[in-house]
Design goal:
About 15% of the residues lie in helices and about 25% in strands. The chain is α+β, with helices and mostly antiparallel strands. The strands form two sheets. Strands 1, 2, 3, 5, 6 and 8 form a six-stranded antiparallel β-sheet that branches. It has a three-stranded antiparallel β-sheet with strand order 7-4-9, with no helix packed on it. It is elongated, with a radius of gyration of 35 Å. The N and C termini lie far apart (about 85 Å).
Length: about 170
């Protein structure tokens, strides 16, 4: 009998503690701010320009058979600007070199600032002067977009046989 009495006392005491604890709980609420910032950013890659075979006896300018490209994947809403340098062999004009020999060429902007716009026809277009960036449209999303870098070699240049090349630098501001 004593054992049974002890169990009843213990159970009663536990129930009393639960009631006291429950009656002493309370709530308080507040807010917690959450924030983030998305900065303008662009990932840039390029593809080389190729003219193919230039015929110095031809009376027609030669547009690049494969235009160069600047490919950009930018933060949505970023408005990038692309500047193209004068190249490694610049002297009054952009020039490719083959040893001590040079072959002049020009760089032109595509026909519009929309991704994938075509190069201008031979004899037409806006020259892409170093220090005068080409302002592109705002990035509609983060997918990569390609922009042509158009090139032209003027007719009638008397240059020696050889393989000519130059290196341009594309600078992207966003």
């Amino acid at each position: 009998m004593i054992k049974l009495l002890k169990n009843k006392v213990v159970l009663s005491a536990a129930a009393a503690v639960c009631v006291i604890t429950a009656s002493q709980s309370a709530q308080a609420q507040t807010t917690l701010g959450v924030s983030a910032t998305i900065g303008s950013t662009c990932i840039v890659t390029t593809a080389n320009m190729a003219f193919g075979v230039y015929d110095p006896t031809s009376a027609t300018d030669l547009n690049a058979s494969t235009p160069g490209q600047v490919q950009l994947a930018c933060t949505t809403g970023a408005v990038p600007k692309v500047d193209i340098s004068n190249g490694s062999n610049f002297s009054v004009t952009r020039r490719m070199s083959s040893g001590a020999n040079f072959l002049g060429y020009s760089v032109f902007q595509p026909t519009s600032n929309a991704a994938g716009a075509a190069c201008p026809a031979v004899g037409a277009g806006t020259a892409w002067a170093s220090g005068t960036p080409f302002i592109l449209t705002a990035a509609p999303n983060t997918s990569a977009r390609a922009y042509n870098v158009c090139g032209r070699i003027t007719a009638g240049q008397s240059s020696a046989v050889g393989s000519y090349s130059d290196t341009l630098t594309a600078t992207i501001t966003f």
